[in-house]
Write a structure and sequence with these properties.
By secondary structure, the protein is an all-beta fold. The chain is built from no helices and 19 strands. The strands form five sheets. The chain has a four-stranded antiparallel beta sheet with strand order 1-2-3-4, with no helix packed on it. Strands 5-6-7-8 form a four-stranded antiparallel beta sheet, with no helix packed on it.
C-alpha cells in the first residue's frame, strides 16, 4: 500500500533528501525535517548540543542551508561556503567545539587549510568515497577523511561549477570507466573521473537545450538522474519561474553505451 505523510514538504522549489540509520532527512523551504517512515512522522531536526547549521529564528529545524547528504555515518549540511557534519551516529549533535572522538566538525573557512572561495552549489559522495564539492564556477574532490587530520583538495575544473544541488550523479561512460561523476553546469554536461580533470562531454555534440547563461542559473531547477538498468541519464532543466522571453523547460536523455543524446 501507499500512504501519504503530509506536512513536511514545500509546495514548490527544491527538495533535497538523504537516508541515515533508517530515517529520511529532507531540506526544503528553509527547513530540515526528520521523517520516520515506520512511525509515519515528520519532525523538525532539533539539536541536543550546538546549534543547527545556518539556524534562523523562525523555529526548530529552520536553516539557511541549501543541501543535505550523508558521509561516513554523519549528516552533512551545506551553508554558503561551509560544510557542517554532525557527530557520528547522532544527527542531533552539532557542537563543533566538542573535543571527543566522533564529534561534529566543519569544513571550509580555513579549517585544515580548506577554504572555498565561492558558494557551494552541490556535494556528492563518489563511489571511491571521496567528496565531490561543486562550487559556482569550479569543482574539487576531497580525498581522505578530514576528521583524521589528512585531506587533500584536488581540483577537477576551475572554469565551471554545478547548476544546482541535484545536478550531480554517478554514471558509467561508453568506455566502461568506473567511478565517474556527471555534473551539469551552465556550460553543459561534464564527466569527472576519480581525481581526474573534468571533460565537457556535451560541448562537441549538443549545445541547444543544455546550456544557459550563468547569471540565469537560479531561474532553473536542474536535476541529473541516472537510470542504471538501461544506461540512461536524464537531464531535467525545469524553469523555476516563467521567463520573459517565453522559453520553457528542457529535458534531455543521454545514452551511456552509445554516447549520444
Amino acid at each position: 500500500t501507499i500512504e501519504e505523510i503530509g506536512g513536511g514538504f514545500p509546495t514548490s522549489g527544491y527538495i533535497g533528501s538523504t537516508e541515515l540509520d533508517g530515517k529520511l532527512y529532507t531540506i526544503g523551504d528553509n527547513q530540515i525535517n526528520e521523517i520516520d517512515l515506520v512511525a509515519r512522522t515528520i519532525t523538525p531536526l532539533a539539536p541536543t548540543s550546538g546549534s543547527l547549521p545556518g539556524a534562523t529564528t523562525n523555529g526548530p529545524g529552520y536553516t539557511t542551508g541549501t543541501d543535505i547528504f550523508t558521509y561516513r555515518g554523519r549528516l552533512g549540511i551545506v551553508v554558503d561556503r561551509l560544510i557542517y557534519f554532525s557527530a557520528v551516529g547522532d544527527v542531533t549533535r552539532w557542537d563543533v567545539a566538542e573535543l571527543i572522538e566522533g564529534a561534529a566538525y566543519v569544513l571550509g573557512g580555513g579549517v585544515q587549510g580548506l577554504r572555498f572561495g565561492e558558494a557551494i552549489r552541490a556535494v556528492e559522495v563518489t563511489t571511491a568515497n571521496n567528496l565531490l564539492i561543486c562550487l559556482e564556477n569550479s569543482i574539487f574532490q576531497l580525498v581522505g577523511d578530514p576528521i583524521t587530520g589528512y585531506v587533500e583538495q584536488v581540483p577537477s575544473t576551475l572554469d565551471s561549477g554545478a547548476s544546482g544541488e541535484r545536478a550531480v550523479c554517478t554514471a558509467v561512460l561508453p568506455s566502461g570507466a568506473k567511478d565517474i561523476a556527471l555534473v551539469h553546469s551552465p556550460d553543459g554536461l561534464f564527466a569527472l573521473p576519480s581525481l581526474g580533470a573534468a571533460a565537457n562531454v556535451s560541448g562537441p555534440v549538443l549545445h541547444a537545450g543544455l546550456t544557459f547563461r550563468r547569471d540565469t542559473r537560479d531561474t532553473y531547477i536542474p536535476q541529473v538522474i541516472r537510470e542504471p538498468r538501461d544506461g540512461l541519464l536524464y537531464i531535467f532543466l525545469t524553469r523555476a519561474t516563467a521567463p520573459a522571453d517565453g522559453s520553457g523547460s528542457t529535458h534531455v536523455v543521454y545514452h551511456e553505451q552509445e554516447g549520444g543524446y
